[in-house]
Amino acid sequence: MQNTFIKQLQTAVESVIRGKSEAVAMAIVTLLGRGNLLIEDVPGVGKTTLAYALAKATDCAFQRIQFTSDMMPSDIIGVSIFNPESREFEFKPGPVFANIVLADEINRTSPRTQSALLEAMNERKITMDRRTLVLPDPFMVIATQNPVEYHGTFPLPESQLDRFMMQIRLGYPDPEHEKRAVAGLSGFALIEKLAPVVTKADILKMQEAADAVAVEDTVMDYLMKIIIATRSDDRIRLGSSTRGAQFLLRAAKAHAYYTGRDFIVPDDIKRLAPSVLGHRLILKTRRGIFDAEDVVRDMVESIPVPV
Amino acid sequence: MPILYKSITAVLALTGCISLLITGEMNLLVCTGGLSIFGGYYRFFRDRPQASKRVAAILAQAALFVFIADASVITGDVFLAVAHMTITFQGIKSFDLKEPWDHLQVYFMSLLQLIIASELTRALTFGVIFVIFMVLLVTAMVLSHFLKEGTLGRVRIRRPVTAIVMLTVLCTAIFFMALPRTPQRFIGKSHIRGIKTVGFSDKVDFGSFGDIKLDQTVVMRIEMDQEVSSPHYWRGIAMDSFDGVSWRNTAREKSRLLKTGDEFVIAPYDRTRVVEQRIYLEPIDSDVIFGLAKMTAVNVDTFSLLVDDASGITMPGKLSRRIKYTVRSDMAGILTGRSEKRYLQVPRGVENIIGLAKSVTGGSSSDLQRAFAIEAYLKRNFAYSLATVPPPVGMSVLENFLFRTKTGFCEHYASSMVIMLRGLGIPSRVVNGFYGGERNEYGNYLIVRQSDAHAWVEALIGNEWKRFDPTPAVAAQKPPALSHFLDSLRLQWTRYVVGFSSEDQKEIVRTLASPFTLKGLPKLRFSSFRTVLFWSLALGFVSLLLYAVMKKLRFRRYSFVTRTYLEFRALLRKKGLKVTDAMTAGDLLRVSRKGGFGIEAEEFLNLYESHRFGSREMTDHVRQRYKALLKKLGTGKRAEDI
Question: What is the pTM of this model?
């Protein structure tokens, strides 16, 4: 049975962003799997709302960084300022020092700034002036990018994309929910009213429990079969990396924990493979990431599942 | 890694090495590296860390150098050097067993060792080892398959493994019986060394029999189609010329025998009057065909046979392998001959002996009586002993025997008698062969050992070569019954495994087909419709059996949990829903909802997932529920009715 914390978290976030239970579930799974989430979608469908609601419902420190083309790495990490009274440099931490960081429109800024954030994301620490500062725990970056506006953007290179556990899209809400959203309170007003349902400590505990989920050997083989298949599929130019495989396993564990199991079933892997692997692949046709998702979805339909 | 799998690997490695060691051909010094096998497997069982790949590679290279030295200098035989190297490699490999692949390497190495050993030995022990090896190898292969699948320990495998092993043994037996027999060897020249005997070559040094008489090695096993009153003299070849030191053949005019049908005919014979002897001859490095006199026909698998003018039958070349042949002898037949100079030849300085002969035969009137008198004289007045002392300087061996020690063995007696007869002008010769043999009651055959090697005398009386045996009888030692029992097993082994011939195959086919053929039909005719029918039926039956067993095994591969799940999947298919192998339990749930299955399907699939992937044991209660759910899904009843 599903853990009550998770249930409450899901309910709380869904009270703000309605009709998107699948996307919310994926965001929670990414959080449990200690991963980072990339949301690619058109503006105004609730990307920011989702990230903010998740932070509010978990009493996590939340920071939003709106990326623009003239941003510097120090705008994210922080900066050392000379304090004339103590005659020393003092470090002023940047917005990255939070539990949940929303990196809005990450593809609008220069690669240099992008990589500053992505390195922080990967290493969970920041080195400045020969000092190492550890980022808070739990830590999760939710990055968004806008697929329509390619003008004046710096698309993330594959090596950076590879660092995100999952990529999802929200899409427009269905008419019924949309009507209610338009007529009712705005998302942010709802978020302000949101009371945290789980603590940071609970999240850390759940992350550990998700780590301890058992993986049966044949299921592991199934996972590896999928990974290897991405490398030999004739529609794909670049298959999944080993990191991709690690992420898929972690995501599957988190998903198993999310649904209230302490073991993985092939279904976890099969369901998550498109969103975990899609953005890592390069198709031969050089089309969008979501085409790659479809390719993965199609590919897993031909891989026999262990019985 | 389960202890069973570990043990099998260890035993297989040892089996391979032992199979080579029992051949007795191994140079133990070169194989000492193989001793590390014990240390290796000890560490392996103790789960100590395995050697790194680099260390293993360095050791393997060292072994290769040893191999080169071995093949070129130490033994000088590449074949044996390979055998030595496999033993060393098994030792090295025992420290390097990380992956299933390493285990496979051990198996292949053992297989190679057995193949090599099969070239070096024909012992029954090897047969036993081979069967053990085969059973273990199949078990290991099946286990490693389950290990790879990750189902080892969760699936009951005792029955499938037993079934597969049985099948393998059965198939091997069938192959063994059906494979075409060729006289060629698979690996060039055979490495089996014969028993070194003397006395069956063109030249026999004096005293060499003494060593043989102490040797209990079996030379022949003989089955006879009828009881023949003893004594049995298994005649080999005759020698005519003596120079005081050795006997030799001076004029061996050999003529080829004609082959009629399957056998070489020496003399025309009446089939009802001959004694048939099936002789299994161990490799004795000789070309002589032994048999009771008088041999009339020989059935042996060679291209030609030669007969010399003293009725000695020889093959065209020395064979160092076991052979089986059949001799038909006419016991009442006589060896005819005429006097020749060489049958009267005597060495120098035997005047005393001739004098002795004259005094012994003083009262006889005919050659026959004279011969009997000499025979009786030697039999009565002399003692039999294998312990002979060399003669003093200036005295010949025979004089020493006749006038000084008065003890000796068959060689002395036969030689003395021939010289005495020749001194009296009676043509005579020494015949080498075997005498007697002990009856084995288990297999009803005779065992003839090296110690039964014997020399006796043939003298030409009139125009007939008569046999005389001046050697006093010695009480034979009786070996214990157990050794007879083992020996009978060995004979079966030789007869039905090592010496399994195309003849035997025909016999089997004949026996199998007998219900369909008329009794007493001499040859199986494959053209006959009935046989074709019989064989196709038999083949069909066997394949059906195989198919059934395989199907059962395939199903057995899965545990109860999976089997039941697969039944559910089949049920969905029957309902006309599209179900593929790429569907997870979750997919099936979505599909089953389309098919109108409700809550039971969900419960059923949850049970499946948690017991299949969640490593929980299914309790009997849950088992019943699981089964019941499936049944209900099949009949379409409601869940609450259970």
Answer: 0.47
Chain A residues with CB-CB distance to B610 below 8 A: 261, 263
Q: Give the contacts of B185 (CB within 8 A, at least 6 positions apart).
A: B119
Return d(Cα A73, Cα A62) in angstroms, integer: 19
Q: In this complex, how many residue pairs, one in chain A and one in chain B, have their CB atoms less than 8 Å apart?
A: 55
Least CB-CB distance to A264: which of B150, B565, B613?
B613
Question: Nearest CA to A128 among A81, A87, A83, A164?
Answer: A81
Q: Is the dihedral of CA A134, A136, A139, A142 positive or negative?
A: negative
Q: Do the chains contact at B615 and A263, CB–CB below 8 Å? A: yes
List B468's β-bridge partners, or say none. B457
CA distance B524 to B259: 23
Angstrom distance (rounded) from CA B105 to CA B123 = 27
Write down the pLDDT at residue B77: 77
pLDDT of residue B309: 82
Q: What is the pLDDT of residues A231-259, one digit of tens each?
A: 988 888 888 999 999 999 999 999 999 99
Please list every residue in chain B whose beta carbon sits closer than 8 Å to the beta carbon of residue A299.
none
Which residue has tokens 């019924």?
A176
- DSSP E strand boundaries for A153-208: 166-168
- The DSSP code sequence of A129-167 is TTEEEEPPSS-EEEEEE-SS--TT--PPPHHHHTT-SEE
Number of H-type helices and E-type strands within chain B: 19, 23
- Structure confidence by residue, pLDDT tens digits, B48-78: 777 777 888 888 888 888 888 888 887 777 8
The Cα B429–Cα B427 span in angstroms is: 7
Give the CA angle between residues B404, B406, B410 to the nearest 5°. Answer: 130
- Whether the per-residue pLDDT at B189 is higher than 50: the answer is no
Among partner residues A263, A302, A303, which is closest to B613 by beta-carbon distance? A263
Instruction: State the burial class of residue B210 (Cβ atoms within 10 Å of its Cβ: 0-12, 13-18, 19+).
Output: middle
Q: List CB contacts (< 8 A) between A217 and chain B.
A: 150
**B154: pLDDT confidence band, cut at 50, 70 and 90?**
low
Confirm or reject contact between A72 and chain B (CB < 8 A).
Answer: no
- Please give the structure tokens belonging to residue B380: 């009565």
What would the two tokens of residue B170 be?
């059965």
- Tokens representing A175 are 């008419």
Sheet strands side by side (includes B203-205): B203-205, B246-248, B241-242
Residues of A in contact with B150 (CB under 8 A): 216-218, 221
Chain mean position to CA B380: 44
The answer on pLDDT for A148 being more than 80 is: no
Element of type H or E holding B49: none
Burial class (CB in 10 A: 0-12, 13-18, 19+), B541: exposed
Work out whether the CA dihedral B196, B202, B204, B205 comes out positive or negative: negative
Nearest to B292 by CA among B348, B235, B339: B235
* A216–B587 CB contact, under 8 Å: no
**Which of B562, B582, B613 shows the shortest C-beta gap to A302?**
B582
pLDDT at position B228, please?
80
| pLDDT 10s digits, B509-524 | 767 666 555 444 444 4
Residues B614, A214: C-beta atoms closer than 8 Å = yes
Model pLDDT, residue B633: 82
> How many angstroms separate the CA atoms of B384 and B409, rounded?
6
> Residue B549 class from Cβ within 10 Å (0-12 exposed, 13-18 middle, 19+ buried)?
middle
Q: Report whether B216 contacts B451 (CB < 8 A).
A: yes
> How close is the nearest chain B Cα to the Cα of A278, in Å?
19
Angstrom distance (rounded) from CA A49 to CA A47: 5
